[in-house]
């Protein structure tokens, strides 16, 4: 691991993770498991199945589940959320169904707090991932169906470090080169766990699918919270080979009361373009900010080519540190 400070050199890719840390005493962990399958192809509808769980571990290592959530959804080829099935208030389902899960969708979710969608809830966390489903699934389309017809539009230029002007992705899109090279093989996810209870795996890897798996763990250490996060987007091809497309690990420390971030370490493990890891070198910009404002601070401090779409997804997830930390009783040094 490399501790990132102002002026430090961005880390290079370190290779995919083979094992994930075991749960720690006096901790709370939020896990989410999202599967995307094409119907019938990646150019048509996308079927989304997602599940999430919160669980706490006491000082003696005993685990207790505190909350869970599940949903299924359909996104059409225009990214419109055409169907949502979830144990949510009807007003929430009706407010998001029929709307594109793109820019503005997350603001719509935030406006539904009084309608029965608390922003700290597992349901909100799962719905928040829908705007990236079509984007991530574009890589599945390339891997299985090949490149889209030429000429290719480049609406992504400038949106992140990987799509900086004149970067690798931009040049390849202009010259007709292959945007996606062979991804590093992703270890079987259950084999990465110290214990099956460390993750609530509900959607095993299946051929011709995309998977997003997250872990956010908060551990009490005196007056501080130690934070661990793991994020992996993977694609399983028609032959059943799973490749890691986006993969990050994060370690951070925040004050238990103010949630002000005092340290952060990001390890980029698998990313599609050579420039992508550069965004990790900019996360020191978040030091001194409160994780209560993680969503807005990430947008403000890591805009455009200073950030990475998927790293931002990792960093924005830190907004759930507060509700997880509130569930931890005590905590040793």
Main attributes of the structure:
333 residues, alpha+beta, eight-stranded antiparallel sheet, 9 helices
Give structural notes.
The protein is of the alpha+beta class. It is 20% helix and 28% strand. It has helices at residues 90-96, 105-110, 122-128, 133-145, 168-175, 189-192, 294-301, 309-316, 321-325; strands at 27-39, 45-57, 63-75, 81-85, 209-221, 224-236, 242-255, 261-270. Strands 4-3-2-1-5-6-7-8 form an eight-stranded antiparallel β-sheet. A hairpin with a 5-residue loop joins β3 and β4 (81-85). The longest helix is centred in the middle third of the chain and has 13 residues, at 133-145. The radius of gyration is 19 Å and the shape is globular. Mean pLDDT is 90; it is low at 1-10.
Helix fraction by DSSP (H/I, runs of at least 4):
10-25%
Radius of gyration in whole Å, from Cα? 19 Å
Q: Give the strand content.
A: 25-35%
Query: Termini distance?
Result: 22 Å
Residue windows where pLDDT falls under 50 for at least 5 positions: 1-10
Total helical elements: 9
Q: How can the largest sheet be summarized?
A: 8 strands, antiparallel
What structural category arises from helix and sheet content? alpha+beta
Strand order of the largest sheet: 4-3-2-1-5-6-7-8
Averaging pLDDT over every residue, what do you get? Answer: 90
SSE topology string:
EEEEHHHHHHEEEEHHH
Total strands: the figure is 8
| Coarse morphology | globular
């Amino acid at each position: 691991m490399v501790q990132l400070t102002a002026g430090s050199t961005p880390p290079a890719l370190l290779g995919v993770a083979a094992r994930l840390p075991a749960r720690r005493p006096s901790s709370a962990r939020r896990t989410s498991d999202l599967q995307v399958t094409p119907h019938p192809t990646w150019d048509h509808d996308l079927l989304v199945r997602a599940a999430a769980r919160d669980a706490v571990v006491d000082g003696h290592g005993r685990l207790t589940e505190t909350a869970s959530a599940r949903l299924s959804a359909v996104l059409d080829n225009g990214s419109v959320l055409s169907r949502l099935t979830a144990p949510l208030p009807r007003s929430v389902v009706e407010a998001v169904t029929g709307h594109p899960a793109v820019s503005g969708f997350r603001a719509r979710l935030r406006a539904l707090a009084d309608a029965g969608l608390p922003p700290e809830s597992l349901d909100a966390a799962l719905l928040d991932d829908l705007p990236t489903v079509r984007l991530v699934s574009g890589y599945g389309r390339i891997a299985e169906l090949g490149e889209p017809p030429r000429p290719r539009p480049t609406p992504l230029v400038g949106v992140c470090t990987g799509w900086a002007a004149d970067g690798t992705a931009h040049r390849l899109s202009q010259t007709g080169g292959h945007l996606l090279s062979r991804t590093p093989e992703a270890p079987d996810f259950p084999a990465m766990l110290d214990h099956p209870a460390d993750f609530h795996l509900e959607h095993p890897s299946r051929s011709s699918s995309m998977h997003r798996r997250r872990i956010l763990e908060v551990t009490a250490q005196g007056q501080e919270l130690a934070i661990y996060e793991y994020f992996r987007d993977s694609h399983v091809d028609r032959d059943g080979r799973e490749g890691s497309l986006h993969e990050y690990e994060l370690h951070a420390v925040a004050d238990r009361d103010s949630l002000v971030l005092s340290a952060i370490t990001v390890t980029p493990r698998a990313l599609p373009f050579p420039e992508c890891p550069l965004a990790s070198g900019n996360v020191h910009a978040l030091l001194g900010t409160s994780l209560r404002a993680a969503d807005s601070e990430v947008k403000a401090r890591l805009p455009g080519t200073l950030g990475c779409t998927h790293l931002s997804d990792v960093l924005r997830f830190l907004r759930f540190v507060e509700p997880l930390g509130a569930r931890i009783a005590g905590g040793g040094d």
